[in-house]
Fold:
Amino acid sequence: MFFRMIIGAFRRQWKKMLMIALTVALGASIATAMLNVMLDVGDKINEELKAYGSNITVVPNSQAVISDLYDVEEEKEEYLAEETLGEFLTIFWANNITDFAPVLDTDVTVNGNDVQLVGTWFDHHFEFKKKGTVYQRDTGIINLRSWWDITDGKWLDEAKLSGDCYAMLGKKLAETLGVKSGDKIDVKGKNGTESLEIVGIFESGDDEEGCIFTTLSAAQRLSGAEGKYKKAEVSAITSPDDELAVKAARNPELLSGDEYDLWYCTAYVSSICFQIQEAIPDASARAVRQIADSEGKILEKTELLMALITLMSLIGATLGISNLVTSSVMERSAELALMKAVGAKNGQITLLVLTEIVLTSVAGAAAGYFMGYAFAQVIGQSVFSSAIEMSGMVAFLVTVLIIAVTLIGSIPAVRMILRLRPSEVLHGGH
Amino acid sequence: MVLASLLRRRSRMIVALLAIVVGATILSGLGLIYYDVPRQMSAQFRSYGANVIFTPSDNSFMTDSEIKKAVSVFPSEKTEGYTPYRYENSKLNNLPVTLAGTDFSSVLKTSPYWHITGELPDGSGKTLVGKKLAEKFGFSAGDSFSLLNSFQVTEDTDLSGVPEYEIYTDPQTNEKFCDHMLDLRVSGILETGGSEEEYIYVTLDDLSDLMLSDRGCDIVEVSVAAREDELKGYLDKINKTSDTLTAKPVKRVTASESTVLSKLESLVLIVTVVVLALTMICVATTMMAVIAERRREIGLRKALGALDSSIVTEFLSEGIVLGAVGGIIGSVLGYLFADTVSMNVFSSSITFRPLLIPVAIIVSVTVTGLACLIPIRSAVDVDPALVLKGE
Structure:
């Protein structure tokens, strides 16, 4: 009997039910899309913020001894071995390291001009073997200098060019030397001379405009530091610093066991630096404050903004749904009163109405979840050109939310109708 | 008649009105946020520090008045601050060090990311030492040291302000030399993760005292809350009017900012569009449901001889009144909401845009009107007898 009534209700009132299902679906799709976008926006913006370049620099751990300082005029150059670069790919948070590049700078002369030459990776294909595992990564400064404008020629493409005698010149230097892309320059370093072909001229708006950028191997030959580099720039996706990170930054050893584990397993800039130092004992890794701090601030603001917009949309969606549910129940006062008049118990009527409404809502919510999925992907693709990750939690949350909203919207209305006397309702005197 | 109908059907109208108010609130709230996000976010991006630098043009100096004049080109409400820097070489314990003279009162405005252990120096005789240099020399906050500026004294050298005992003569060559000293006390240690950690920061006056010259500064950092293209306009204007200094954007900051900010803007835009579209459909379905419930009433009126057009007009004007009222209430609520968001996220109030009120009202009225029209038409087209019979 119960099921017959339910099925009958759906068959007879399918238009009304469809309207409710549609509204629920719309609300659910707003909730699904916004919650998913909100949960993923941090990662997405973090990737965008990589445009600012590296947020960690790795330098040799200078064992500066005071006695060393007094006797020599010229400070001894310190280097890191090129093999250590592979260690970046072995640390706990290796997957958060989006790009890294070694830097070896040295003073050279070109046509009698003193110039700084920087050897680095441009878009280097890097392979590293350790304990039987092969790590590989395409990385280099092409992603760490997103703000460079190539005014002449193109980016140095290591894979396409044969040999390593190529260079990119800063615009200012190119003007001083009077050269353009395709020209060759003779560069005299501490340890020999190389003839480099210019593949591109760049505009960077800082001191690098006066430098020559060339391949790491060419710079190593020129400076006589074979197999070495001076500094590494690392760009990592990090979590904004919080109290724990601030505490750890002072001294990781002061943390309690649990705190230490939590800190170590969170992608704070300080824990990534710590892990790099663990992997490369000769190196000192430090956060570039300008980038690391600002990233945290921007991320925090964006996430909060999205959370509040999501909250607003959720309130809107839930109000819309419960509003319609209430009104649809109120409209049925005559029908419910009639049921009561012919002897139905309050519990039976309530159960009937709730089953109808909840079934409709769940159907609507299911449809809405998929609509919301589509909307989230539209947002992800059009803004970030990448998919928004769907969280299973959101599906659960939306289901609970929709059922709760439906019940909250319908129960008071049903109770109110049942409290009235059937004759009054049927008579139309309310 | 419209008013009477509105009053009579109070509960149903409340449902419809609530739906419209929710829609209009979301419209005006998200609209306000969308328009204000670039401005608010741009201010947040100032945490990356200076985005403009002034350097002296060839063979000239930047005077204070020139700098002030150039800075005044930027609108004052958008200028976070500007900091001059002068770099000199000096000696500490006979080792070469780089000195930077600056204005400590504005330095955190253009470099908000500086981490200082101890305090920022608040006057002359105090210094901020870069972390690397401090580690090398074993300095911590509270320590004192002296900087040395050694130079050969010629006839042209102005020795006013130099104590007698700092001047000595080489007995062999009979040339005169001067070892001018500056005593400093470390106020704080600076950590940035960049080259700043290798410098010693002092006030511009102290640096002039030590170097015995006030030659102006080498670089001025300016932090302006403006987008790349807007900034370009200001910089062109400065470069046109001034012949002693050149203004340049810090491309790393400006270019990256416009990349990230444009993503953020399009994010808020598309979220606004999606949420608005869904909300408006939601409002429309609610309105349609409310009107559809009144098929009996429409049928009865038709049976009593009302013209189709008069029924449509009445229902439509009812919807329009509802839309207008809902739009007005929604605009106010939306403004309150947007302002709360702005205060929470950016700690500054939102810019009120009066234009959004008529937009919210017009959209509400249009959506409500359209949503009413469809079910009324279908109700009007039906034979009244069937409607009244309940089929």
User: Anything to note?
Assistant: Residues 245 and 268 of chain A are 7 Å apart (CA to CA). Chain A touches chain B through 72 residues (CB under 8 Å). The longest strand of chain A covers residues 97-110. Residues 64-74 of chain A have pLDDT under 50 and may be disordered.
